[in-house]
Amino acid sequence: MQDLIATVRSVARCESEEGVIVSAPRSSFEQTGRRSEDSEGVLTRREMEVLMAVARGMSNKQAGASLHVSETTIKRHLSNIYAKLGVGSRGEAVRKAMSEGWISGWDISKDG
């Protein structure tokens, strides 16, 4: 909660948003960063970065270049995202993330 408050205050003061990433709630993560038993559907920070790249219309190759990973790694992340969200396509994943409030049209339209 303190991170959220600090982020909102920072954005309100028009400070740099480079460290800000919109993501799924972290409450189901253990201190180690591993998924707990009840965290199905929760995306990791990296999966959120991949989903944001996809939402911005990037191909797997473009997303890989942007995130400094291989196209194969992007495909693996997308497969994990689809399984966690219970969807079968990029469009469905983006739509679900938007409906859950994890990303917004404003996030998508920002320069990545």
Give the arrangement of secondary structure elements.
Layout: H1 2-12, H2 45-55, H3 60-67, H4 71-85, H5 90-99, H6 105-109
Brief characterization of the structure:
The chain has 112 residues and is an all-alpha fold.
Number of helices: 6
Largest sheet: none
User: What string, H for helix and E for strand, traces the elements in order?
Assistant: HHHHHH
Our estimate of the beta-strand percent is: under 5%
| Rg, nearest Å | 14 Å
Q: Can you tell me the overall shape?
A: globular
**Named CATH topology of the domain at 43-112:** Arc Repressor Mutant, subunit A
Give an account of the 3D structure:
The protein is mostly helical and 112 residues long. The protein has a domain at 43-112: Arc Repressor Mutant, subunit A. 54% of the residues lie in helices and 0% in strands. It has six helices and no strands. The protein has helices at 2-12, 45-55, 60-67, 71-85, 90-99, 105-109. Helix 2 (45-55) crosses helix 3 and helix 2 (45-55) packs across helix 5 (90-99). The chain is globular and about 40 Å long. The two termini are 25 Å apart. Mean pLDDT is 76; it is low at 15-39.
